[in-house]
Write a structure and sequence with these properties.
Blueprint lengths: L10 E2 L5 E2 L24 H5 L13 H5 L3 E2 L2 E2 L5 H7 L15 H17 L1 H21 L3 H12 L5 H14 L7 H15 L3 E5 L5 H9 L5 E6 L2 H13 L7 E5 L2 H4 L3 H4 L7 E4 L6 H10 L8 E4 L2 H5 L1 H9 L3 E10 L2 E13 L4
Parallel strand pairs: 5-6, 5-8, 6-7, 8-9
Antiparallel strand pairs: 1-2, 3-4, 9-11, 10-11
Helix pairs in contact: 6-7, 6-10, 7-9, 8-9, 13-15
Bound molecules: S-adenosylmethionine.
Pfam families: Methyltransf_3
Family: Belongs to the class I-like SAM-binding methyltransferase superfamily. Cation-dependent O-methyltransferase family.
InterPro entries: SAM-dependent_MTases_sf, SAM_O-MeTrfase
Length: about 350
Protein backbone atom coordinates (compact mmCIF):
# COMPACT_ATOMS: atom_id res chain seq x y z
CA UNK A 1 0.00 0.00 0.00
CA UNK A 2 1.59 3.21 -1.11
CA UNK A 3 2.46 5.74 1.54
CA UNK A 4 2.22 3.38 4.47
CA UNK A 5 4.42 4.08 7.50
CA UNK A 6 6.90 6.79 8.34
CA UNK A 7 9.27 5.66 5.66
CA UNK A 8 6.75 5.70 2.86
CA UNK A 9 7.39 7.30 -0.48
CA UNK A 10 5.60 10.42 -1.55
CA UNK A 11 2.29 9.46 -3.12
CA UNK A 12 1.41 10.79 -6.58
CA UNK A 13 -1.79 12.79 -6.59
CA UNK A 14 -4.40 12.45 -9.31
CA UNK A 15 -3.28 15.79 -10.69
CA UNK A 16 0.28 14.51 -10.81
CA UNK A 17 1.63 16.66 -7.99
CA UNK A 18 3.68 14.67 -5.51
CA UNK A 19 2.67 14.95 -1.90
CA UNK A 20 4.81 14.47 1.18
CA UNK A 21 3.54 11.40 3.05
CA UNK A 22 2.54 11.58 6.66
CA UNK A 23 5.50 10.94 8.98
CA UNK A 24 4.56 10.84 12.58
CA UNK A 25 7.25 11.02 15.29
CA UNK A 26 4.98 9.26 17.73
CA UNK A 27 6.66 5.85 18.38
CA UNK A 28 3.26 4.30 19.01
CA UNK A 29 2.35 5.02 15.42
CA UNK A 30 5.35 3.17 14.06
CA UNK A 31 4.30 0.19 11.93
CA UNK A 32 6.78 -2.06 13.69
CA UNK A 33 5.14 -1.47 17.02
CA UNK A 34 3.02 -4.26 18.46
CA UNK A 35 1.14 -1.86 20.60
CA UNK A 36 -2.66 -2.21 20.22
CA UNK A 37 -4.34 0.56 22.16
CA UNK A 38 -8.02 0.53 23.07
CA UNK A 39 -8.21 3.96 21.46
CA UNK A 40 -5.45 4.83 19.04
CA UNK A 41 -3.72 8.15 19.78
CA UNK A 42 -5.09 11.06 17.87
CA UNK A 43 -2.27 12.44 15.71
CA UNK A 44 -0.82 15.71 16.90
CA UNK A 45 -0.73 16.95 13.34
CA UNK A 46 -4.51 16.70 13.16
CA UNK A 47 -5.05 18.36 16.53
CA UNK A 48 -2.95 21.29 15.41
CA UNK A 49 -5.12 21.57 12.30
CA UNK A 50 -8.24 21.96 14.41
CA UNK A 51 -9.53 18.41 13.87
CA UNK A 52 -10.93 16.41 16.71
CA UNK A 53 -11.60 12.78 17.36
CA UNK A 54 -14.92 11.29 16.45
CA UNK A 55 -16.13 9.85 19.75
CA UNK A 56 -17.86 6.99 17.93
CA UNK A 57 -14.73 5.90 16.07
CA UNK A 58 -13.52 2.38 16.84
CA UNK A 59 -9.77 1.83 17.21
CA UNK A 60 -8.01 0.19 14.29
CA UNK A 61 -4.53 -1.29 13.91
CA UNK A 62 -1.82 1.23 13.19
CA UNK A 63 -1.11 -0.10 9.83
CA UNK A 64 -4.53 0.87 8.63
CA UNK A 65 -4.28 4.26 10.17
CA UNK A 66 -0.86 4.89 8.78
CA UNK A 67 -2.10 3.95 5.39
CA UNK A 68 -3.77 7.30 5.38
CA UNK A 69 -1.72 10.24 4.26
CA UNK A 70 -2.32 13.67 5.56
CA UNK A 71 -1.48 16.79 3.74
CA UNK A 72 -1.94 19.82 5.87
CA UNK A 73 -5.48 19.94 7.08
CA UNK A 74 -6.80 17.72 4.32
CA UNK A 75 -6.86 14.02 4.02
CA UNK A 76 -6.21 12.08 0.87
CA UNK A 77 -9.51 10.34 1.13
CA UNK A 78 -9.43 8.33 -2.06
CA UNK A 79 -7.55 5.49 -0.37
CA UNK A 80 -9.39 5.06 2.90
CA UNK A 81 -12.56 7.07 2.70
CA UNK A 82 -14.23 5.34 5.62
CA UNK A 83 -11.33 5.91 7.98
CA UNK A 84 -10.89 9.47 6.82
CA UNK A 85 -14.51 10.16 7.45
CA UNK A 86 -14.14 8.75 10.93
CA UNK A 87 -11.13 10.87 11.76
CA UNK A 88 -11.60 14.18 10.09
CA UNK A 89 -14.19 16.77 10.82
CA UNK A 90 -14.46 20.18 9.30
CA UNK A 91 -12.35 22.62 11.14
CA UNK A 92 -14.43 23.92 14.03
CA UNK A 93 -15.09 27.65 14.20
CA UNK A 94 -14.01 29.01 17.58
CA UNK A 95 -17.10 29.67 19.71
CA UNK A 96 -18.32 33.24 19.45
CA UNK A 97 -17.10 35.26 22.43
CA UNK A 98 -19.99 36.87 24.20
CA UNK A 99 -19.56 40.51 25.26
CA UNK A 100 -16.36 41.21 23.36
CA UNK A 101 -15.94 43.26 20.23
CA UNK A 102 -13.25 42.88 17.70
CA UNK A 103 -10.74 45.75 17.99
CA UNK A 104 -11.18 46.40 14.27
CA UNK A 105 -14.93 47.00 14.67
CA UNK A 106 -14.32 49.15 17.74
CA UNK A 107 -11.82 51.21 15.77
CA UNK A 108 -14.32 51.63 12.93
CA UNK A 109 -16.74 53.27 15.39
CA UNK A 110 -14.13 55.63 16.80
CA UNK A 111 -14.48 58.39 14.13
CA UNK A 112 -18.26 58.31 14.57
CA UNK A 113 -17.97 58.68 18.35
CA UNK A 114 -15.44 61.50 18.02
CA UNK A 115 -17.63 63.30 15.46
CA UNK A 116 -20.68 63.04 17.72
CA UNK A 117 -18.71 64.27 20.73
CA UNK A 118 -17.35 67.27 18.83
CA UNK A 119 -20.64 68.12 17.16
CA UNK A 120 -22.78 67.86 20.31
CA UNK A 121 -20.17 69.01 22.83
CA UNK A 122 -22.38 71.87 24.05
CA UNK A 123 -25.21 69.48 24.78
CA UNK A 124 -22.86 67.12 26.62
CA UNK A 125 -21.54 70.04 28.69
CA UNK A 126 -25.09 71.13 29.46
CA UNK A 127 -26.00 67.58 30.47
CA UNK A 128 -22.98 67.36 32.75
CA UNK A 129 -23.70 70.71 34.40
CA UNK A 130 -27.46 70.34 34.77
CA UNK A 131 -27.69 66.69 35.65
CA UNK A 132 -24.44 65.09 36.80
CA UNK A 133 -22.76 67.91 38.73
CA UNK A 134 -26.05 69.16 40.12
CA UNK A 135 -27.04 65.73 41.46
CA UNK A 136 -23.58 65.26 42.95
CA UNK A 137 -23.74 68.63 44.75
CA UNK A 138 -27.31 67.94 45.90
CA UNK A 139 -26.08 64.69 47.50
CA UNK A 140 -23.02 66.28 49.08
CA UNK A 141 -24.71 69.40 50.45
CA UNK A 142 -28.16 67.94 51.27
CA UNK A 143 -29.62 71.11 49.69
CA UNK A 144 -31.21 71.73 46.32
CA UNK A 145 -29.67 74.04 43.75
CA UNK A 146 -32.34 76.72 44.29
CA UNK A 147 -31.57 76.67 48.01
CA UNK A 148 -27.83 76.99 47.38
CA UNK A 149 -28.52 79.85 44.96
CA UNK A 150 -30.63 81.61 47.56
CA UNK A 151 -27.90 81.24 50.23
CA UNK A 152 -25.49 82.89 47.81
CA UNK A 153 -27.95 85.70 47.06
CA UNK A 154 -28.50 86.26 50.78
CA UNK A 155 -24.80 86.80 51.36
CA UNK A 156 -23.94 88.67 48.14
CA UNK A 157 -26.97 90.67 46.92
CA UNK A 158 -28.52 93.90 48.10
CA UNK A 159 -31.96 93.28 49.64
CA UNK A 160 -34.67 95.40 48.09
CA UNK A 161 -32.78 95.76 44.81
CA UNK A 162 -34.27 93.35 42.23
CA UNK A 163 -31.69 94.34 39.61
CA UNK A 164 -28.80 93.48 41.93
CA UNK A 165 -30.44 90.20 42.96
CA UNK A 166 -30.85 89.26 39.27
CA UNK A 167 -27.20 90.10 38.52
CA UNK A 168 -26.08 88.07 41.54
CA UNK A 169 -28.07 85.05 40.32
CA UNK A 170 -26.53 85.40 36.84
CA UNK A 171 -23.05 85.59 38.33
CA UNK A 172 -23.64 82.54 40.50
CA UNK A 173 -25.05 80.59 37.56
CA UNK A 174 -22.13 81.26 35.25
CA UNK A 175 -19.33 81.02 37.85
CA UNK A 176 -20.61 78.49 40.38
CA UNK A 177 -23.51 76.24 39.41
CA UNK A 178 -25.67 76.26 36.33
CA UNK A 179 -29.19 77.43 37.16
CA UNK A 180 -32.05 76.56 34.77
CA UNK A 181 -33.23 80.15 34.74
CA UNK A 182 -34.04 82.48 31.90
CA UNK A 183 -30.70 84.29 31.97
CA UNK A 184 -29.78 87.84 30.99
CA UNK A 185 -30.23 87.65 27.18
CA UNK A 186 -33.80 86.35 27.29
CA UNK A 187 -34.37 88.47 30.36
CA UNK A 188 -33.75 91.62 28.32
CA UNK A 189 -36.36 90.53 25.76
CA UNK A 190 -38.88 89.71 28.48
CA UNK A 191 -38.40 93.00 30.31
CA UNK A 192 -38.67 95.03 27.12
CA UNK A 193 -41.92 93.30 26.15
CA UNK A 194 -43.45 93.72 29.63
CA UNK A 195 -42.56 97.42 29.62
CA UNK A 196 -44.00 97.76 26.12
CA UNK A 197 -47.29 95.94 26.88
CA UNK A 198 -47.65 97.38 30.40
CA UNK A 199 -50.02 94.63 31.57
CA UNK A 200 -52.34 95.43 34.45
CA UNK A 201 -52.43 91.76 35.31
CA UNK A 202 -49.75 89.21 34.37
CA UNK A 203 -49.61 85.45 34.84
CA UNK A 204 -46.48 83.31 34.97
CA UNK A 205 -46.49 79.51 34.83
CA UNK A 206 -43.26 78.01 36.23
CA UNK A 207 -41.76 80.30 38.88
CA UNK A 208 -38.68 78.17 39.63
CA UNK A 209 -36.46 80.28 41.91
CA UNK A 210 -38.18 83.54 40.94
CA UNK A 211 -35.72 84.92 38.38
CA UNK A 212 -38.24 85.66 35.61
CA UNK A 213 -40.77 86.65 38.29
CA UNK A 214 -38.48 89.49 39.37
CA UNK A 215 -37.94 90.50 35.75
CA UNK A 216 -41.68 90.81 35.12
CA UNK A 217 -42.43 92.38 38.49
CA UNK A 218 -39.88 95.17 38.10
CA UNK A 219 -41.18 96.02 34.61
CA UNK A 220 -44.87 96.11 35.59
CA UNK A 221 -46.66 99.46 35.35
CA UNK A 222 -47.63 101.10 38.65
CA UNK A 223 -50.54 99.19 40.19
CA UNK A 224 -49.86 96.14 38.01
CA UNK A 225 -49.87 92.68 39.56
CA UNK A 226 -48.38 89.30 38.82
CA UNK A 227 -49.63 85.83 39.71
CA UNK A 228 -46.96 83.20 39.46
CA UNK A 229 -47.58 79.43 39.64
CA UNK A 230 -45.04 76.83 40.77
CA UNK A 231 -45.91 73.20 41.25
CA UNK A 232 -42.97 72.23 43.47
CA UNK A 233 -43.48 73.38 47.10
CA UNK A 234 -39.75 73.34 47.99
CA UNK A 235 -38.83 75.43 44.94
CA UNK A 236 -41.79 77.71 45.62
CA UNK A 237 -40.55 78.30 49.20
CA UNK A 238 -37.22 79.59 47.83
CA UNK A 239 -38.94 81.74 45.20
CA UNK A 240 -41.23 83.26 47.84
CA UNK A 241 -38.21 84.31 49.95
CA UNK A 242 -36.41 85.72 46.92
CA UNK A 243 -39.44 87.72 45.78
CA UNK A 244 -39.91 89.20 49.24
CA UNK A 245 -36.17 89.87 49.56
CA UNK A 246 -36.40 91.90 46.35
CA UNK A 247 -39.08 94.03 47.98
CA UNK A 248 -42.29 92.88 46.25
CA UNK A 249 -45.29 92.41 48.49
CA UNK A 250 -48.20 89.96 48.07
CA UNK A 251 -50.36 92.57 46.37
CA UNK A 252 -47.80 92.97 43.56
CA UNK A 253 -46.59 89.39 43.29
CA UNK A 254 -48.66 86.46 44.48
CA UNK A 255 -47.14 83.00 44.40
CA UNK A 256 -49.49 80.05 44.00
CA UNK A 257 -48.21 76.57 44.75
CA UNK A 258 -49.86 74.05 42.46
CA UNK A 259 -49.95 72.57 39.00
CA UNK A 260 -50.87 74.93 36.20
CA UNK A 261 -53.60 72.63 34.89
CA UNK A 262 -55.27 72.66 38.32
CA UNK A 263 -54.69 76.35 39.06
CA UNK A 264 -55.89 77.85 35.73
CA UNK A 265 -59.51 76.68 36.14
CA UNK A 266 -59.56 78.26 39.65
CA UNK A 267 -57.93 81.58 38.73
CA UNK A 268 -61.19 83.41 38.30
CA UNK A 269 -63.00 82.03 41.34
CA UNK A 270 -60.22 81.53 43.86
CA UNK A 271 -57.64 84.16 42.87
CA UNK A 272 -59.93 86.86 41.46
CA UNK A 273 -58.03 86.99 38.21
CA UNK A 274 -60.51 87.79 35.45
CA UNK A 275 -58.01 88.45 32.68
CA UNK A 276 -54.35 87.92 32.01
CA UNK A 277 -52.99 90.70 29.82
CA UNK A 278 -49.61 89.04 29.64
CA UNK A 279 -48.84 85.37 30.18
CA UNK A 280 -45.39 83.83 30.45
CA UNK A 281 -45.28 80.09 29.80
CA UNK A 282 -42.01 78.90 31.31
CA UNK A 283 -42.93 75.65 33.01
CA UNK A 284 -42.78 72.70 30.64
CA UNK A 285 -42.83 73.09 26.84
CA UNK A 286 -44.92 69.99 26.30
CA UNK A 287 -47.67 71.47 28.53
CA UNK A 288 -47.78 74.84 26.74
CA UNK A 289 -50.49 73.89 24.24
CA UNK A 290 -52.73 72.31 26.88
CA UNK A 291 -52.42 75.34 29.17
CA UNK A 292 -52.94 77.85 26.36
CA UNK A 293 -56.16 76.06 25.42
CA UNK A 294 -57.19 76.04 29.10
CA UNK A 295 -56.66 79.81 29.27
CA UNK A 296 -58.78 80.22 26.11
CA UNK A 297 -61.48 77.89 27.42
CA UNK A 298 -61.75 79.84 30.68
CA UNK A 299 -61.86 83.14 28.78
CA UNK A 300 -58.83 84.48 30.63
CA UNK A 301 -57.21 85.99 27.54
CA UNK A 302 -58.60 89.35 26.46
CA UNK A 303 -58.20 90.41 22.83
CA UNK A 304 -54.73 91.89 22.43
CA UNK A 305 -53.26 89.77 25.28
CA UNK A 306 -49.63 88.79 24.89
CA UNK A 307 -48.54 85.20 25.46
CA UNK A 308 -44.81 84.63 25.74
CA UNK A 309 -43.42 81.11 25.65
CA UNK A 310 -39.85 80.29 26.64
CA UNK A 311 -37.84 77.30 25.37
CA UNK A 312 -39.89 76.89 22.21
CA UNK A 313 -36.81 75.80 20.25
CA UNK A 314 -34.86 73.99 22.95
CA UNK A 315 -36.15 71.60 24.23
CA UNK A 316 -38.87 72.81 21.88
CA UNK A 317 -42.65 73.09 21.72
CA UNK A 318 -43.52 72.19 18.09
CA UNK A 319 -47.18 71.36 18.70
CA UNK A 320 -47.70 74.62 20.54
CA UNK A 321 -46.07 76.63 17.73
CA UNK A 322 -48.00 74.75 15.09
CA UNK A 323 -51.29 75.46 16.87
CA UNK A 324 -50.49 79.14 17.41
CA UNK A 325 -49.60 79.60 13.76
CA UNK A 326 -52.47 77.64 12.27
CA UNK A 327 -55.48 78.34 14.50
CA UNK A 328 -55.85 81.88 13.17
CA UNK A 329 -56.31 83.50 16.58
CA UNK A 330 -52.71 84.57 17.16
CA UNK A 331 -50.11 86.72 15.53
CA UNK A 332 -46.76 85.01 16.10
CA UNK A 333 -43.25 86.25 16.35
CA UNK A 334 -40.13 84.38 17.37
CA UNK A 335 -37.26 86.01 19.29
CA UNK A 336 -34.14 83.97 18.66
CA UNK A 337 -31.61 83.63 21.49
CA UNK A 338 -29.26 81.05 22.96
CA UNK A 339 -29.31 79.34 26.33
CA UNK A 340 -27.56 81.25 29.11
CA UNK A 341 -23.84 80.31 29.06
CA UNK A 342 -24.50 78.11 26.02
CA UNK A 343 -25.02 80.58 23.15
CA UNK A 344 -24.35 77.80 20.64
CA UNK A 345 -27.54 76.03 21.78
CA UNK A 346 -30.21 77.90 19.88
CA UNK A 347 -33.45 78.69 21.62
CA UNK A 348 -36.19 81.23 21.32
CA UNK A 349 -39.08 83.02 22.98
CA UNK A 350 -42.34 82.94 21.06
CA UNK A 351 -44.48 86.04 21.25
CA UNK A 352 -48.15 85.51 20.48
CA UNK A 353 -50.71 88.28 20.30
CA UNK A 354 -54.24 87.04 20.88
CA UNK A 355 -56.78 88.34 18.37
CA UNK A 356 -59.82 87.15 20.32
CA UNK A 357 -61.99 84.03 20.24
CA UNK A 358 -63.62 84.81 16.83
C1 LIG B 1 -37.44 76.16 33.59
S1 LIG B 1 -38.08 76.41 35.15
C2 LIG B 1 -38.70 78.05 35.03
C3 LIG B 1 -37.59 79.05 35.01
C4 LIG B 1 -38.08 80.43 35.40
N1 LIG B 1 -39.07 80.89 34.52
C5 LIG B 1 -36.89 81.36 35.43
O1 LIG B 1 -36.50 81.86 34.41
O2 LIG B 1 -36.34 81.56 36.50
C6 LIG B 1 -39.55 75.47 35.12
C7 LIG B 1 -40.32 75.44 36.43
O3 LIG B 1 -41.67 75.09 36.15
C8 LIG B 1 -42.12 74.25 37.18
N2 LIG B 1 -43.24 73.46 36.61
C9 LIG B 1 -43.18 72.40 35.79
N3 LIG B 1 -44.40 71.99 35.46
C10 LIG B 1 -45.27 72.80 36.06
C11 LIG B 1 -46.68 72.88 36.10
N4 LIG B 1 -47.44 72.01 35.44
N5 LIG B 1 -47.25 73.85 36.83
C12 LIG B 1 -46.49 74.73 37.49
N6 LIG B 1 -45.15 74.71 37.51
C13 LIG B 1 -44.54 73.76 36.81
C14 LIG B 1 -40.93 73.41 37.56
O4 LIG B 1 -41.08 72.92 38.88
C15 LIG B 1 -39.81 74.44 37.44
O5 LIG B 1 -39.58 75.06 38.67
Amino acid sequence: MAGVGPGAQAAPRRDGVRQEPFRSHDPRLHPASNHRPRAYPFPDELSRCGCRRNPGFRPRPYRVILANQWEGTRCVTDRLPLLSYALIFPKQEPPAQVGTMSPAIALAFLPLVVTLLVRYRHYFRLLVRTVLLRSLRDCLSGMRIEERAFSYVLTHALPGDPGHILTTLDHWSSHCEYLSHMGPAKGQILMRLVEEKAPACALELGTYCGYSTLLIARALPPGGCLLTVERDPRTAAVAEKLIRLAGFDERTVELIVGRSEEVIPRLRTQYQMNRADLVLLAHRPRCYLRDLQLLEAHALLPAGATVLADHVLFPGAPRFLQYAKSCGRYRCRLHHTGLPDFPAIKDGIAQLTYAGPG
